[in-house]
Write a structure and sequence with these properties.
The protein is of the alpha/beta class. It has one domain: Alkaline Phosphatase, subunit A. It is 27% helix and 16% strand. The chain has 13 helices and 18 strands. The strands form four sheets. It has an eight-stranded mixed beta sheet, with helices on both faces. Strands 13-14-15-16-17 form a five-stranded antiparallel beta sheet, with helices on one face. Strand 13 and strand 14 form a beta hairpin. It starts with 35 loop residues before the first helix and ends in a 10-residue tail after the last helix. The relative contact order is 0.21. The structure holds zinc ion. Zinc ion binds next to loops.
Length: 476
């Protein structure tokens, strides 16, 4: 839906005065749901705990981790969006655990996926700019599962997810695609080739909500869904985009007209529906193959998207705001048809411990996350950051954002002010104390290692040419 930019000021980017405006929220009240107690009572009923143990499966379940790049939670129906962007995901949520307050560690593909696949906070894995690769001694999830006998498959959109940063480690098969159409061909092939005697881990990363293929002829890394999705929510939406060279649109940092915002949002939403319709087809295939009911399925995103709503362009993926960091998170348990909403705060660091548990592997006490299928603490301080611009602690509903360059700290109550329009200035030293207390309890991991430029320098150059390295720059 279109937003009036005048009501969505840049709380974390304005030099002095906090913004003001309507405090009305389109988001669902978290109080409308039962929380974890009912969930746990259900899941823990009986002797076996949750997951495969409860089902008495003779072997560990297969696992699908699906990352829908750039999907902000509040544009998903099950999280309260009015448009029919996600009929498939909404139905899937009805039989999954739905985490109402899932936080991404960073509004950037590289950092966030490294957290998703290591279970570590950004400052722990250290892959916080394009110059770094994961330390050889730090295990990726695929390595852990491969050692446990899993077949490991990574199907990904090539950009920041790349062997260059260590994302390929532990995958028997690691293959890139340029679009969801190509991903479909790869998926069919890998499913046909699976060894039915062993469980598999499939990491599936789709980029089509963000944009089409990154190539120099393309208009830039921005919403490019095919017909009829490009006109599904606003007829002729692409004609409403700003009159500027297409490649510049992504990097434009000014205000958009309300028509342009309407067009941008409609195209973004069309891309979501395009991917959602594709997933419906894929999941029907998984079901036909008899895989779905024996699989742990986790569906999430790496970060959200700003959609220009703060009058500050679109290329920071929403920065420190919730539109940048609040991500959908659905967990579908093997063999169970559980539809429950969890209001306890969750984070992408929780995915690896959850998968280790489902796979029957021992917990790794050095990981900061919790197991999503067990009772989560109702309050837990969680971290997010973008090394170029901000550090953050979210202790729901309190969000503390430290703006590094401005040396300012702002506190927002996300229940009272979900659009982050007001805020309260805090002493930065209080923020340091609060964040330091969280960091103190976290294990140290080997530092990241420099990317091998002689092997991978060309990719970085190509991303820079496309403007996609704009991910690095957010000012928020
Ligand atoms: Zn991304």
């Amino acid at each position: 839906m279109a937003r009036d930019p005048a009501t969505m000021l840049g709380l974390y980017s304005l030099p002095s005065e906090p913004g003001s405006g309507s405090m009305k929220s389109r988001r669902r009240s978290s109080r409308a749901h039962d929380g974890v107690r009912t969930l746990l009572a259900l899941l823990l009923a009986g002797a076996g705990g949750v997951g495969c143990a409860e089902q008495q499966h003779s072997r560990a379940p297969s696992i699908l981790l699906l990352s829908l790049d750039t999907l902000r939670a509040d544009h998903v129906g099950t999280f309260g969006y009015e448009r029919e962007t996600t009929p498939f995901l909404d139905a899937f949520a009805e039989k999954s655990l739905v985490f109402e307050h899932a936080l991404s560690p960073a509004p950037w593909t590289l950092i966030s996926h490294m957290t998703m696949l290591t279970g570590l906070y950004p400052h722990q894995h250290g892959v916080v700019t394009g110059d770094w690769a994961l330390a050889d001694a730090t295990p990726l999830l695929a390595q852990r599962l491969s050692r446990a006998g899993y077949q490991t498959i990574g199907l990904y959109y090539e950009g920041w997810i790349h062997a260059r940063h260590g994302f390929d480690r532990g995958f028997d098969h690691f293959e890139s695609h340029a679009s969801v159409r190509e991903a479909e061909q790869h998926l069919e092939r890998v499913l046909d080739d699976l060894d039915p005697a062993r469980p598999f881990f499939l990491f599936l990363h789709l980029f089509d909500i963000h944009c089409g293929p990154l190539d120099p002829e393309h208009r830039g890394p921005i919403y490019d869904c095919p017909a009829p999705y490009d006109s599904m929510f606003v007829e002729g939406a692409s004609e409403l985009l700003p009159d500027m060279p297409e490649g510049k649109l992504w990097l434009y940092k000014g205000d958009f007209s309300s028509d342009a915002l309407r067009g941008l949002t409609a195209l973004y939403d069309g891309g979501i529906r395009y991917v959602d319709d594709t997933l419906r087809r894929w999941f029907a295939d998984l079901e036909r193959r008899g895989l779905l009911e024996e699989m742990l399925v986790i569906i999430t995103s790496d970060h959200g998207e700003s959609l220009g709503q703060r009058g500050n362009g679109i290329n920071d993926h929403g920065g420190a705001y919730q539109e940048g960091l609040h991500v959908p998170l659905l967990v579908h348990l093997p063999g169970q048809n559980v539809g429950r909403r969890v209001v306890a705060p969750a984070h992408l660091v929780d995915i690896v411990p959850t998968i280790l548990k489902a796979a029957g592997l021992p917990a790794d006490a050095r990981l900061p996350g919790r197991i999503l299928t067990e009772e989560l603490p109702p309050a837990r301080p969680l971290l997010a950051e973008n090394p170029a611009s901000f550090e953050m602690v979210v202790d729901w509903p309190h969000k503390y954002v430290h703006l590094i360059a401005a040396r300012r700290t702002i506190e927002v109550d996300l229940e009272e002010d979900p659009e982050e329009l007001v805020g309260r200035e805090l002493d930065p030293s209080a923020f340091e104390h609060r964040r330091g207390a969280v960091l103190e309890g976290l294990a140290a991991w080997p530092p990241a290692q420099p990317v091998n430029e002689s092997e991978y320098g060309e990719l970085e150059e190509r991303l820079q040419e496309m403007g996609y390295a704009g991910d690095v720059r957010g000012e928020d």
